[in-house]
Structure to design on (111 residues):
């Protein structure tokens, strides 16, 4: 099965000074559609995936993750680099089940 993805530009995450959150980002740059997302670090001209997930609403899911202290601590402790969120949506083609495609895509990116 061939799955085509439309990737958005990486959205930078900024370190928060507020004690309630570790990172924040411009959520309006994350599409309000179903798709796949990657929390990553950008270092030395390359992106390194730190966490991969899929959601029916990327913006809401990422917003929820920004409030997930355990995940944000994990991202904070990762090696050197700027933190970014990379989001992609599936380019729909006739006859393909989008939910099944998202699960397959998520598994393959994790591997």
């Amino acid at each position: 099965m061939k799955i085509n993805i439309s990737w958005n530009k990486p959205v930078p995450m900024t370190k928060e000074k507020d004690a309630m959150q570790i990172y924040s980002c411009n959520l309006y740059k994350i599409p309000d559609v179903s798709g796949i997302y990657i929390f990553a670090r950008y270092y030395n001209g390359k992106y390194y995936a730190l966490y991969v997930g899929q959601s029916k609403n990327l913006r809401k899911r990422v917003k929820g993750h920004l409030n997930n202290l355990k995940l944000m601590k994990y991202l904070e402790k990762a090696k050197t680099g700027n933190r970014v969120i990379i989001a992609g949506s599936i380019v729909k083609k006739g006859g393909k089940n989008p939910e099944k495609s998202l699960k397959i895509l998520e598994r393959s990116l994790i591997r």
Summary: The beta strands are 5-7, 11-12, 14-15, 23-24, 35-43, 46-55, 82-90.
